[in-house]
Design goal:
Mean pLDDT: 89
Structural class: alpha/beta
Strand order of the largest sheet: 4-3-5-13-6
Oligomer: single chain
Family: Belongs to the LysR transcriptional regulatory family.
CATH superfamily of the largest domain: Periplasmic binding protein-like II
InterPro entries: HTH-type_LysR_regulators, LysR_HTH_N, LysR_subst-bd, WH-like_DNA-bd_sf, WH_DNA-bd_sf
Protein name: HTH lysR-type domain-containing protein
Organism: Paenibacillus rhizosphaerae
Order of helices and strands: HHHEEHEHEHEEEEEHEHEEEH
Low-confidence stretches: none
Number of domains: 3
Radius of gyration: 26 Å
GO molecular function: DNA binding; DNA-binding transcription factor activity
Number of helices: 9
Length: 295
């Protein structure tokens, strides 16, 4: 069995048409047909059934496709890892980040990095904190941008910053004239929060627990944009950072009279995973850009 046969099989399986697959592969149809027939002879079973002009995978074909695609991904990943080892200024970095960071920090950080390293590409994954750490633990991601609450001694973490959290109010709220407000004043006020999958949820809960406050939570959303929209519509108030996305809503912002009202954000990576030269390049850039934010 040759690797090329597997590549040809995947193409035919996806397109369900021999002629279209041959065109995509820049191959003659007879040559492609011979390759598929040879693969079927070696396996001892047919992999396709005809359905009109199309070729449809049978149960053996579906089984083989699942394994073939997995093998193909592994080979491509190995090729990329070798390329990353050869050149520290060319390759791919896999990066996962929290939903809350997608509107502002990610574009800013990666934009400035790519200005310097034009041949390094990123594979991006938007995820929850738990999903992010699972990806890193399973070596499916090189780095994550996250809050620190779920970290343990298996991970390194480098602090990037601590954006301030403000009280977001609907326009014309009775507190709109305030220059600042205490957390205790939120005790009975309808509050729009975030689900536990969002890192900001943990930070906000810590702030309330420290003050022994039980917020009057009327709704928990998945995204900051949803929270901002509900606040704007008068459903309640919220604690939010002034990110680009949420500032598109008609909100009034009041400073919170608590120095701990901040959201720690940093880069996380696994301790026992050897870093490729490309990954080292990214970390050196992070440490240079945020020299006073050591974890």
């Amino acid at each position: 069995m040759e690797w090329q046969q597997i590549e040809y099989f995947i193409a035919v399986a996806k397109l369900q048409h021999m002629t279209k697959a041959a065109q995509q592969l820049s191959l003659s149809q007879p040559a492609l047909s011979r390759s598929i027939a040879g693969l079927e002879r070696e396996l001892g079973v047919a992999l396709f059934e005809r359905s009109g002009r199309n070729l449809v995978l049978n149960r053996f074909g579906r089984l083989f496709l699942e394994r073939a695609e997995h093998a193909f991904r592994e080979i491509e990943q190995a090729k990329q890892e070798i390329a990353n080892q050869i050149n520290p200024e060319a390759g791919v970095i896999s990066l996962s980040f929290l939903h809350t960071l997608g509107a502002q920090l990610i574009p800013s950080l990666l934009g400035s990095f790519r200005e310097r390293y034009t041949d390094i590409r990123f594979e991006l994954h938007e995820s929850s904190n738990q999903q992010l750490l699972t990806l890193i633990s399973n070596h499916e991601c090189d780095f994550g941008l996250s809050t620190p609450e779920l970290l343990d001694d298996k991970f390194n973490w480098h602090l990037l910053g601590m954006p301030e959290l403000f009280l977001a109010l609907p326009q014309h709220h009775r507190w709109s004239s305030k220059s600042q407000i205490s957390l205790e004043e939120l005790q009975d006020e309808p509050f729009v929060g975030l689900k536990t999958s969002c890192g900001l949820n943990f930070t906000i809960n810590q702030l309330f627990e420290k003050k022994q406050i039980r917020p009057n939570t009327v709704f928990e959303a998945d995204e900051l944009d949803t929270v901002a929209g509900l606040v704007s519509a008068g459903f309640g108030v919220a604690l939010l950072p002034k990110t680009i996305g949420v500032q598109n809503h008609h909100l009034h912002w009041v400073k919170v009279d608590d120095p701990a009202c901040k959201l720690p954000i940093g880069v996380v990576w696994k301790k026992d995973r050897p870093l490729t030269p490309v990954s080292e390049t990214f970390l050196d850039f992070i440490r240079e850009k945020y020299p006073s934010m050591q974890s």
